[in-house]
From TrEMBL:
GO molecular function, one term: 3 iron, 4 sulfur cluster binding
Descriptive protein name: Ferredoxin
Organism: Streptomyces dysideae
Keyword Flavoprotein (UniProt): no
Record's keyword terms, sorted: 3Fe-4S, Electron transport, Iron, Iron-sulfur, Metal-binding, Transport
SUPFAM superfamilies found in the cross-reference section: 4Fe-4S ferredoxins
Amino acid sequence: MRITVDPGLCYGSGECVYRLPSVFTVVDGFGAVIPGHENAGDDPEVREAAEKCPSQAITVGE
Ligand code: SF4
């Protein structure tokens, strides 16, 4: 499943990177998915990072 980060919601807390640095990074102050990992949404750790994002900026879907 595809992971997306909405830069309109993200405020750059970096929590997603702290939780899962193999998938998330920060670009220009906003959370982003490391290229090549966009379809890693089936990983339970990705789902947890999405749930724990303080601004609900991470979406995991088709
Ligand atoms: S946890 Fe959420 S608010 Fe924080 S950097 Fe990641 S996407 Fe942005």
